[in-house]
Write a structure and sequence with these properties.
Layout lengths: L1 H7 L11 E2 L2 E2 L6 E3 L1 E2 L12 H15 L3 E6 L5 E8 L4 E5 L13
Length: about 110
Protein backbone atom coordinates (compact mmCIF):
# COMPACT_ATOMS: atom_id res chain seq x y z
CA UNK A 1 0.00 0.00 0.00
CA UNK A 2 2.06 2.91 -1.25
CA UNK A 3 -0.39 5.57 0.00
CA UNK A 4 -0.28 4.10 3.52
CA UNK A 5 3.50 4.10 3.43
CA UNK A 6 3.40 7.81 2.67
CA UNK A 7 0.88 8.42 5.44
CA UNK A 8 2.89 6.47 7.97
CA UNK A 9 5.72 8.99 7.48
CA UNK A 10 3.48 11.85 8.63
CA UNK A 11 4.06 11.16 12.34
CA UNK A 12 5.53 14.66 12.79
CA UNK A 13 1.98 16.05 12.57
CA UNK A 14 1.18 14.42 15.92
CA UNK A 15 2.45 17.58 17.62
CA UNK A 16 0.21 20.07 15.78
CA UNK A 17 -2.32 21.95 17.92
CA UNK A 18 -5.46 21.35 15.81
CA UNK A 19 -7.03 18.04 14.75
CA UNK A 20 -5.64 16.89 11.44
CA UNK A 21 -6.73 14.24 9.00
CA UNK A 22 -4.91 13.32 5.85
CA UNK A 23 -6.92 11.82 3.00
CA UNK A 24 -5.27 10.30 -0.05
CA UNK A 25 -6.56 8.30 -3.00
CA UNK A 26 -6.85 4.71 -1.87
CA UNK A 27 -4.58 1.83 -2.75
CA UNK A 28 -5.79 -1.43 -4.27
CA UNK A 29 -9.39 -2.14 -3.28
CA UNK A 30 -9.98 1.10 -1.32
CA UNK A 31 -11.32 4.38 -2.64
CA UNK A 32 -9.34 6.48 -0.17
CA UNK A 33 -7.16 6.12 2.92
CA UNK A 34 -6.37 8.44 5.81
CA UNK A 35 -4.84 9.08 9.23
CA UNK A 36 -6.25 11.27 12.01
CA UNK A 37 -4.38 13.16 14.76
CA UNK A 38 -5.83 15.36 17.54
CA UNK A 39 -3.11 15.59 20.21
CA UNK A 40 -4.56 18.64 21.96
CA UNK A 41 -7.83 16.75 22.42
CA UNK A 42 -5.93 13.89 24.07
CA UNK A 43 -5.95 11.74 20.92
CA UNK A 44 -2.35 11.30 19.68
CA UNK A 45 -3.73 9.21 16.81
CA UNK A 46 -7.22 7.83 16.40
CA UNK A 47 -6.98 4.18 15.23
CA UNK A 48 -10.10 4.43 13.04
CA UNK A 49 -11.97 7.74 13.17
CA UNK A 50 -15.64 7.62 12.16
CA UNK A 51 -16.17 11.38 12.42
CA UNK A 52 -13.27 12.07 10.04
CA UNK A 53 -14.69 9.59 7.53
CA UNK A 54 -18.09 11.28 7.78
CA UNK A 55 -16.38 14.54 6.73
CA UNK A 56 -14.28 12.96 3.97
CA UNK A 57 -17.07 10.84 2.44
CA UNK A 58 -18.90 13.65 0.57
CA UNK A 59 -15.61 14.97 -0.81
CA UNK A 60 -14.49 11.59 -2.18
CA UNK A 61 -18.01 10.76 -3.38
CA UNK A 62 -17.89 13.90 -5.56
CA UNK A 63 -14.32 13.33 -6.75
CA UNK A 64 -14.92 9.67 -7.63
CA UNK A 65 -18.53 10.15 -8.79
CA UNK A 66 -19.82 7.32 -6.61
CA UNK A 67 -21.88 7.22 -3.42
CA UNK A 68 -20.66 3.98 -1.81
CA UNK A 69 -16.98 3.99 -0.91
CA UNK A 70 -14.44 1.77 0.81
CA UNK A 71 -11.94 3.55 3.05
CA UNK A 72 -8.87 2.42 4.96
CA UNK A 73 -7.40 4.22 7.98
CA UNK A 74 -3.62 3.72 8.05
CA UNK A 75 -3.07 3.83 11.81
CA UNK A 76 -1.02 1.24 13.66
CA UNK A 77 -4.18 -0.81 14.25
CA UNK A 78 -5.72 0.11 10.93
CA UNK A 79 -9.29 -0.38 9.93
CA UNK A 80 -11.74 -0.50 7.08
CA UNK A 81 -14.76 1.82 6.97
CA UNK A 82 -17.56 1.55 4.42
CA UNK A 83 -19.21 4.90 3.73
CA UNK A 84 -22.40 5.77 1.88
CA UNK A 85 -22.95 9.45 1.04
CA UNK A 86 -26.58 10.42 0.43
CA UNK A 87 -27.07 13.70 -1.43
CA UNK A 88 -30.85 13.66 -0.95
CA UNK A 89 -30.61 14.42 2.78
CA UNK A 90 -26.90 15.33 3.12
CA UNK A 91 -26.23 12.32 5.32
CA UNK A 92 -23.39 9.82 5.54
CA UNK A 93 -23.78 6.22 6.73
CA UNK A 94 -20.70 4.50 8.16
CA UNK A 95 -20.29 0.78 8.64
CA UNK A 96 -17.54 -1.61 9.62
CA UNK A 97 -16.19 -3.51 12.60
CA UNK A 98 -16.04 -1.57 15.87
CA UNK A 99 -14.41 -1.79 19.27
CA UNK A 100 -16.17 -0.61 22.39
CA UNK A 101 -13.77 1.75 24.16
CA UNK A 102 -16.24 3.34 26.59
CA UNK A 103 -19.72 2.71 27.90
CA UNK A 104 -21.97 5.01 29.88
CA UNK A 105 -25.37 6.52 30.43
CA UNK A 106 -26.50 9.96 29.39
CA UNK A 107 -29.27 11.49 31.48
CA UNK A 108 -31.11 14.31 29.76
Amino acid sequence: MQACTILLQLHSFQTTPAPNFFPLPGPMSYDFCSRFFAPNAGVPEDPVCGSAHAVMAPYWANVLKKRSLAAWQCSGRGGEVRVDADDSDSSVRLSGAARVVMEGTLNV
